[in-house]
Design brief:
Elements: H1 2-5, H2 11-33, H3 40-55, H4 57-67
Length: about 70
C-alpha cells in the first residue's frame, strides 16, 4: 500500500514477484493435499525466495520510502 501510495518505481515488480510466489505456493499446496511428499527442494525454494527477495528487492524500497517521509 505504501509503495503504491508513494509511487515507488519498483511497485509493479514487487507486486509481480509476490503474485508469482503465491501462485507457486498454491501449486505446492495442491501437491501436498493430493498426497505428494514434499521434498527438501520445496523448503530450499521457499528459503531462497524469501532470503533473496528480502535481501534484494525489499532492500530497495526502504530508502525510497524513508526519503518520502514514511517512518
Amino acid at each position: 500500500m505504501l509503495m503504491k501510495l508513494h509511487d515507488y518505481p519498483g511497485y509493479e515488480d514487487q507486486k509481480r514477484a509476490h503474485m508469482q510466489l503465491v501462485s507457486q505456493i498454491a501449486v505446492i499446496q495442491k501437491k501436498y493435499e493430493d498426497g505428494t511428499v514434499l521434498s527438501q527442494d520445496v523448503i530450499t525454494f521457499l528459503k531462497n525466495w524469501l532470503v533473496n527477495h528480502i535481501q534484494g528487492m525489499d532492500q530497495k524500497y526502504g530508502p525510497y520510502l524513508i526519503d518520502k517521509g514514511v517512518n
